[in-house]
Amino acid sequence: MQLHFVTLSVPLLTSPAALRQAVESTLQEQGEPLRWAITAVDVAAQQVQVEAVVTVQAAK
User: Domain range for residue 31?
Assistant: First the structure.
């Protein structure tokens, strides 16, 4: 198992629950999220920047 630091952008949604769902589903594409945080919000572009630590199975 390896740890990876990822940064990604997701659409800014009006509902906190919908935003959380969007972040978590996008992170699942990168690996299993351990923790994540919204680090920037671009209101004009309607995007949030997320930084996360995910685990990925090591290639054998």
Answer: 2-56
